[in-house]
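hey
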């Protein structure tokens, strides 16, 4: 009889898999580091969990230098990691068969491989792989019964990605910090990365386009048209908008206001709007941002939690297609038992029975490992508010993909005035909501009504407006549009894009929901453009991503991709070393200027000439706000909270006009503080 050791990615997944395979016969052993054991078909099965990545690449040998290319995979730091690895190693000695039961993707395959090779004494050589896209009972049982060989190309692709990211990130970050230290003798944490830097560079280029945009004036004209037969009115646009000369708009107003006309054309039609395709991760992140305002990393985390609960399929997928093998009717039938979806499911099944068949609208993108994101049909018990929103969005999107097309009616009325000027009245409304009613409230069903009009009837322009406008700069990225940009340009993977954006925020390189690049972010990019132009190249990053995908698909060799990345970075460092002093001067000027800027809170409310800055007492070590003119005629000071990060808001208190700061950390959410100790809004201002 065999003893199988199943290695899972997370504790919650290990518990789910164990009780699915073992049922009531599962014995849970241990508290802080639990594992599960049961008998199945005469074999002993032990299920144990990792904590995500328990191994990571680190420098081989000691010392702080760059460039460094010698790396080795070692256990991550921390007592908890050591305890998990020690327990896995102990359990491995009892087993004679090993199965990777981590999430079926690049990261999951790599996590299990490192554990099997290192903690389990080379067990990767004989291990098997469970492949599943959801944690449902049927799929897990099928995956256990049909294990396959380890997915070595996927593992190699994961190793290559981590190692190349380490080579780029560690070396460039050290180079920047060493240059600063060489010039100043000080230390400042700065970072760059293979994906992070091209993304930041693209944001800087957008910032440049916005800053360099020169608004050009133009004019638009509209009129209130009255149809004389019915007496109804409607607003109409001038058919030759935009007007490029101011004088032309004024002439139009004088010529048309109060003049009579005739309806010369009435056109009616209908548009067909097909059902949406299923969600891939990027589309789910964008849609959750649009309807809920959720940041991409937050949506991904919520979706991963729903997957671990067995409520949805694996979310880190790039597929927009659903295969029949998932069982469309079975999932819909289960969803129909939930009162919230009962009516929609019944409508969809009736539509399918009418002859159309039960087929979702498929998107263009596919993923060899997983289908598009879909519910499993399992009814949730209790979900937090945010999880409930994302779950509802996924369910309604899934149901709507099976729905009939929606139809939208539109109508155009053209009115020609007596001097030959033409104004158009346009409107439309949804005549048949089709799939839209199943996706409500995440899609708007409505429209505007047009007055009845016939060709040849009389009309009159009651009022005419001419409005001056200016051409807009390109719109700023938000987190949703930045995810789409990264997808189109091959920056990062479906799993890493949200984290890259979060890192840019944490480093202080970008800010705001409508993304602005900070002075620090711009300074770092300008230095990288000069010293490491390859590192900000989208082309290079895309090339490496394609090569790593080639490893996964068996078209590229792991070693050749690593050599390509190392050679690229090596040439850049040779140039950096020769210019270390000049680079250090640039970086120190940037950092010192930003430190001074970060310390400024706002204008001094007492002397009006100086500015407030954060000061730390030499005696007590406590921080407070003081005037820059202290000792030169102004002694203003104000206390500050001693916990959390202080950030200037740039806004005055609405009650007293004093500057305000934001205190971040130490509380559940940021806390706005007025610097006037006597202000009635001192705490909540």
């Amino acid at each position: 009889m065999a003893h199988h050791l199943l290695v899972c990615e997370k504790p919650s997944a290990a518990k789910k898999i164990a009780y699915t395979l073992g049922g009531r016969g599962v014995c849970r052993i241990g508290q802080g580091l639990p594992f599960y054991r049961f008998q199945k078909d005469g074999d002993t099965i032990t299920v144990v969990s990792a904590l995500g990545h328990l191994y990571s690449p680190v420098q081989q040998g000691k010392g702080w230098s760059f460039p460094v290319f010698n790396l080795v995979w070692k256990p991550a730091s921390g007592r908890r990691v050591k305890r998990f690895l020690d327990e896995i190693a102990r359990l491995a000695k009892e087993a004679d068969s090993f199965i990777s039961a981590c999430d079926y993707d690049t990261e999951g395959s790599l996590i299990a491989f490192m554990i099997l090779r290192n903690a389990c004494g080379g067990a990767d050589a004989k291990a098997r792989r469970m492949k599943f896209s959801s944690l449902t009972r049927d799929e897990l049982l099928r995956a256990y019964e049909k294990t396959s060989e380890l997915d070595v190309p996927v593992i190699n692709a994961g190793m290559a990605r981590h190692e190349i990211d380490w080579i780029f990130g560690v070396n460039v970050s050290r180079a920047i910090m060493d240059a600063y230290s060489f010039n100043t003798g000080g230390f400042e944490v700065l970072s760059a990365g293979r994906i992070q830097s091209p993304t930041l560079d693209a944001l800087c280029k957008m910032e440049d386009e916005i800053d360099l945009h020169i608004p050009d004036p133009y004019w638009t004209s509209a009129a209130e048209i009255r149809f004389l037969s019915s007496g109804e009115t409607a607003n109409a646009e001038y058919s030759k908008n935009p007007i490029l000369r101011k004088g032309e708009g004024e002439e139009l107003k004088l010529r048309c206001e109060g003049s009579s006309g005739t309806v010369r054309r009435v056109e009616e039609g209908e548009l067909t709007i097909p059902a949406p395709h299923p969600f891939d991760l990027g589309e789910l992140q964008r849609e959750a941002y649009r309807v809920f305002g959720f940041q991409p990393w937050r949506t991904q985390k919520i979706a991963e939690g729903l997957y671990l609960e067995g409520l949805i399929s694996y979310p880190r997928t790039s597929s927009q297609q659903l295969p029949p093998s998932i069982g469309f009717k079975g999932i819909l039938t289960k969803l129909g038992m939930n009162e919230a979806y009962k009516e929609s499911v019944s409508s969809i099944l009736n539509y399918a029975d009418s002859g159309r068949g039960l087929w979702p609208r498929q998107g263009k993108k596919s993923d060899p490992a997983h289908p598009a994101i879909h519910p499993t049909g399992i009814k949730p018990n209790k979900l937090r508010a945010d999880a409930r929103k994302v779950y509802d969005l996924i369910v309604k999107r899934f149901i709507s993909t099976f729905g009939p097309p929606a139809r939208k009616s539109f109508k155009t009325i053209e009115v020609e005035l007596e001097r030959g000027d033409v104004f158009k009245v346009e409107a439309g409304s949804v005549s048949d909501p089709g799939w839209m009613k199943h996706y409500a409230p995440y899609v708007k069903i409505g429209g505007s009504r047009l007055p009845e009009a016939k060709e040849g009837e009389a009309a009159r322009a009651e009022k005419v407006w001419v409005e001056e406008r200016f051409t807009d700069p390109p719109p700023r990225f938000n987190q949703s549009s930045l995810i789409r940009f990264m997808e189109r340009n091959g920056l990062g993977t479906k799993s890493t894009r949200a984290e890259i954006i979060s890192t840019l925020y944490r480093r202080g390189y970008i800010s705001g929901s409508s993304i602005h690049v900070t002075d620090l972010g711009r300074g770092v990019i300008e230095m990288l453009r000069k010293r490491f132009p390859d590192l900000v190249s989208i082309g290079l990053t895309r090339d490496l991503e394609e090569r790593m995908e080639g490893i996964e698909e068996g078209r590229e060799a792991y070693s050749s991709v690593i050599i390509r990345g190392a050679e690229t970075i090596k040439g850049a460092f040779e140039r950096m070393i020769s210019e270390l002093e000049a680079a250090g001067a640039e970086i120190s000027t940037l950092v010192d200027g930003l430190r001074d800027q970060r310390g400024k809170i706002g204008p001094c409310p007492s002397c009006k000439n100086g500015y407030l800055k954060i000061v730390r007492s030499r005696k007590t070590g406590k921080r407070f706000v003081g005037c820059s003119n202290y000792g030169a005629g102004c002694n203003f000071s104000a206390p500050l909270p001693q916990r959390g990060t202080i950030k200037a808001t740039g806004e005055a208190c609405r009650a007293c006009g004093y500057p305000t700061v934001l205190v971040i950390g130490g509380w559940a959410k940021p806390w706005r503080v007025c610097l006037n100790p006597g202000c009635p809004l001192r705490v909540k201002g």
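The chain has 19 helices and 24 strands. The chain has a mean pLDDT of 88.
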